[in-house]
Write a structure and sequence with these properties.
The chain has 23 helices and six strands. With 604 residues, it is mainly alpha-helical. The strands form two sheets. A three-stranded mixed beta sheet has the order 1-2-3.
């Protein structure tokens, strides 16, 4: 164990103790500010990586330049392909590279990163590895830059959520604070790269449940998201992503047409989700290496793009053209096909194991849906208007707001991205209908979402165990039977666990600072590859802990995150204060109930 590592751990231990000692507001000003800076910087890094990859693959190799949104310089792009034969080849090349990188070093980086972050919020806020974040940046830039239909919000969300997860590990944050840190990371990363800080902040609270709201994440999210937006905007500017003609609501009858759009968007959102996960399921059954699956999907996208170039890459430039009525020359049949083509392209690009977000494509699908509905209504319906922009923008809100089960956040984000706040009121009709339709079928594009906060294991237990909040962990914790030193040989550590008939034990550094836990499986696996491995090499840094002064409600939450058997108890200096088992919690609670019964009887 190097002196630098020891110094770093001591510093992180002191920093963690200091942060946890702070009152709520100062604590989240510190944590939220740091997460916001990293979210903004991560968004810059990924934006540049994606720009470089797009210029190389689509620009240099394929000779094609897609249109760009106004906030990124605008530009109509190329009217056709200079080298049509190169489009499928370039898409396959990028997907091959991305697939090899992901499935060699970090298989959990496949697909869309936002769902993985939501999963971490509910299961273990410390579980996102730094390696996954790095792989996600590279793989997503390759997938989307070579023409894959994906959004850039997934990688940026995973960067900042991964940093929130890192803070939870390094500072030994409570499980609840870790959840908030990861949720805030998701919202601030997405808010930064889309230039929508308010929407990003609300997204942090809106996206983790299907039918509930994580209110505790809202205030930290507001601060973190605006910091991230400031960092990203200091490099790329603070203009809205899209230019949109001014909109003024003048005819109540328009609400009926927006309602029609909401219904169509709701059902197309369901089709998006079903298609995406249908392709994901089929891909997993392919009888060859998973490293090649994204290339199969990319070949389909490349061939589809030869007829419909609107399916390539992020597609944000096509939203811009729709908002400015620059797609009016396209035949009606093409307009009607665009939402379905984009659904298929996204399913093939990301559902087969490619890397990228599903938020961005969802907005593109919604924009094309709004354009198609307007195109059908404009010749026959009164008061629809001759400008498709409101239908394009509201289509973005309704389709993805519904299928993401985050209607409020999507309304605010699109309003910020288009710089048009007046569109919110009429949009509410469409978004509400789309969300009700999706809710009727109980679906979501984010399968890691829980229904409500009451669906978490800890909440279910707390509802029936009313004494949990008044009992402290310290009363149930016991001294550890085995305490492993980081420098202990893994073979000796394994023997110590076997002698004590334990599955695992805490690992501490020479100063007694808690590092993580090592169990028999990790020790055995390490010894199989390195006979000189130490207990410190095998420590699971993401293992859940619980503070000695926490109540049993938090203890049960931590036990659930740790697998339900045992969890390490730490003090304010991040030293091991004991071990908490499920049996000890049950015994303490039973004793408390028995002690309270005579008091209730005498009072009665």
């Amino acid at each position: 164990m190097s002196k630098d590592s020891d110094s770093t751990r001591r510093l992180s231990g002191r920093a963690g103790a200091w942060v946890k000692s702070l009152p709520y507001l100062p604590k989240w000003l510190v944590l939220g500010g740091v997460i916001g800076v990293i979210a903004g910087a991560g968004a810059i890094v990924f934006y540049e990586a994606l720009t470089l990859a797009t210029h190389f693959f689509l620009g240099y190799l394929a000779g094609y330049h897609a249109p760009a949104p106004a906030g990124e310089g605008g530009g109509a792009g190329d009217s056709g392909f200079a080298r049509p034969w190169a489009i499928p080849l370039v898409a396959v090349l990028g997907a091959l590279l991305a697939g090899f990188i992901v499935f060699t070093w970090a298989p959990e980086a496949e697909g869309h990163g936002t769902d993985a972050a939501i999963d971490a919020v509910h299961k273990n806020p410390r579980m996102i590895r730094v390696r996954v974040v790095i792989i996600k940046i590279v793989a997503s830039a390759l997938t989307i830059g070579s023409g894959g239909s994906g959004g850039r919000e997934g990688p940026t969300a995973q960067i900042s959520a991964g940093f929130g997860s890192l803070l939870a590990r390094v500072l030994d944050l409570s499980r609840e604070d870790g959840r908030i840190a990861v949720s805030v990371g998701v919202g601030s990363g997405i808010g930064a790269i889309f230039g929508a800080p308010l929407g990003g902040a609300v997204l942090a609270a809106d996206i983790v449940y299907r039918d509930d709201f994580e209110a505790e994440a809202l205030l930290p999210g507001l601060f973190s998201s605006v910091v991230a937006w400031g960092v990203f905007g200091s490099v790329f500017g603070f203009r809205p992503l899209f230019a949109m003609p001014s909109f003024h609501f003048t005819h109540p009858l328009q609400l009926a047409w927006f309602a029609v759009l909401g219904v169509v968007a709701g059902f197309l959102g369901l089709l998006y989700s079903k298609s995406f996960y249908g392709v994901t399921g089929l891909s997993k059954r392919l009888p060859f290496s998973r490293k090649l699956h994204p290339a199969v999907g990319a070949l389909g996208v490349g061939l589809l793009a030869l007829g419909l170039p609107q399916v390539l890459s992020t597609g944000y430039g096509w939203i811009q053209e729709g908002l400015l009525n620059q797609l009016a020359h396209m035949p009606l049949i093409i307009i009607l096909l665009l939402p379905f083509a984009r659904i298929l392209a996204t399913s093939l690009s990301i559902g087969t194991g490619g890397s990228g977000g599903v938020f961005g494509p969802g907005m593109v699908i919604g924009a094309f849906t709004g354009l198609a509905v307007w195109r059908l209504l404009e010749p026959v319906a009164p008061d629809v208007g001759h400008d498709p922009a409101p239908f394009v923008a509201i289509g973005m809100m309704a389709l993805f707001g519904g299928i993401a089960r985050a209607p409020l956040a999507n309304i605010l984000m699109v309003a910020e991205m288009t710089g048009n706040i007046e569109i919110i009121a009429p949009a509410m009709v469409a978004v509400a209908l789309a969300t009700l339709i999706v809710r009727r079928f109980d679906d979501s594009i984010y399968r890691s979402q829980l229904g409500t906060r009451a669906d978490s294991a800890a909440s279910q237990l707390e509802s029936g165990l009313t004494l949990l909040p008044v009992l402290e962990v310290a009363a149930a914790a016991v001294p550890p039977r085995v305490l492993l030193k980081a420098g202990d040989p893994a073979r000796e550590a394994l023997a110590a666990l076997g002698g004590a008939r334990l599955l695992g034990a805490p690992v501490v550094d020479p100063d007694g600072t808690y590092l993580g836990t090592a169990d028999r499986d990790r020790l055995t696996a390490a010894l199989d590859s390195d006979a000189e491995a130490t207990a410190g090499d095998c420590a699971d840094l993401s293992a859940q802990t619980v503070s000695a002064d926490a109540d049993l409600h938090e203890a049960i939450d931590a036990l659930n995150g740790a697998g339900g058997q045992w969890v390490t108890v730490t003090d304010g200096q991040r030293r091991v204060a004991g071990i908490l088992t499920a049996g000890a919690v049950v015994r303490l609670y039973r004793d408390a109930v028995e002690a309270s019964e005579p008091a209730r009887a005498s009072a009665g």
